[in-house]
C-alpha cells in the first residue's frame, strides 16, 4: 500500500473541520443554556429559602419569592443543553464505551467495532430526528405553551429537532471516519480510536 492510500481523504478532513466548528458552536449554545439554568435556580433558591432566613435573622420580615416559572425554564434549558451537546459528543468520541476487552486489539478491529456502533447510532439518530419532526408539527398545530409562563413550546422543540438532524449527520460522518480508519489503518479525528 503506497503512502497516498494510507492518507484519509481530503473530503473527510474538510467535512470534519466544518462539523467540528458547527458542533462546537451548537455546544456553546448548550453551555449558555446550562449557565442560564444555574442562574435561574440560584436566584429562585436564594429568594425562596435563603433570603427569608437571613431577613428573619436580622429581625426583618421578608416574604419568600422565586422566579415565576423557574421549573419550566430549567426544563426547557435542559432539553436545549442535552440536544446541543449530543452532536459534539458523538464527533469527539465522547460517548461511553466499554473497551476492557478491546483495548489491546489492533486499530482496525477497534475501528471496525466503532463502525458497527456508528451505523446503529446513525439509524437511531435518523429515526429520532424524523419522529421529532412529527412532534414539532403537533406543537405548532396545537400551539402548545408552558403552564405558568405561557411560552410557546415549538421554539425550543425546533432547536432540538435541528440538533437531532445535526446528530444524524455527525453519526453518518463517524461511519465514514471509521471506514477510513479501517482502510488506512490510521487513527483519524480529534481523539483517535486508539485513545478510547
From TrEMBL:
Gene Ontology CC annotation, any one: plasma membrane
InterPro entries named in the record: DctQ (IPR055348)
Membrane-spanning segments: 21-46, 73-91, 112-134, 154-176
Cellular localization per UniProt: Cell inner membrane; Cell membrane
Membrane topology designation: Multi-pass membrane protein
MF-aspect GO terms: transmembrane transporter activity
One Pfam family linked to the record: DctQ
Protein family per UniProt: Belongs to the TRAP transporter small permease family.
Assembly description: The complex comprises the extracytoplasmic solute receptor protein and the two transmembrane proteins.
Annotated function: Part of the tripartite ATP-independent periplasmic (TRAP) transport system.
Protein name as catalogued: TRAP transporter small permease protein
Species in which this protein is naturally found: Salinarimonas ramus
Amino acid at each position: 500500500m503506497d503512502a497516498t492510500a494510507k492518507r484519509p481523504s481530503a473530503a473527510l478532513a474538510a467535512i470534519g473541520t466544518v462539523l467540528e466548528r458547527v458542533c462546537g458552536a451548537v455546544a456553546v449554545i448548550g453551555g449558555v443554556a446550562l449557565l442560564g439554568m444555574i442562574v435561574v435556580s440560584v436566584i429562585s433558591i436564594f429568594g425562596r429559602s435563603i433570603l427569608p432566613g437571613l431577613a428573619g435573622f436580622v429581625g426583618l420580615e421578608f416574604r419568600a419569592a422565586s422566579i415565576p416559572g423557574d421549573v419550566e425554564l430549567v426544563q426547557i434549558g435542559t432539553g436545549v443543553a442535552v440536544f446541543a451537546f449530543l452532536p459534539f459528543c458523538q464527533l469527539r468520541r465522547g460517548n461511553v464505551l466499554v473497551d476492557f476487552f478491546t483495548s489491546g486489539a489492533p486499530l482496525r478491529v477497534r475501528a471496525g467495532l466503532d463502525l458497527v456502533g456508528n451505523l446503529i447510532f446513525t439509524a437511531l439518530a435518523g429515526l429520532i430526528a424524523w419522529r421529532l419532526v412529527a412532534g414539532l408539527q403537533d406543537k405548532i398545530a396545537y400551539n402548545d405553551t408552558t403552564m405558568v409562563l405561557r411560552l410557546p413550546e415549538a421554539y425550543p422543540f425546533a432547536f432540538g429537532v435541528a440538533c437531532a438532524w445535526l446528530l444524524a449527520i455527525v453519526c453518518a460522518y463517524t461511519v465514514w471516519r471509521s471506514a477510513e480508519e479501517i482502510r488506512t489503518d490510521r487513527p483519524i479525528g480529534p481523539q483517535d480510536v486508539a485513545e478510547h
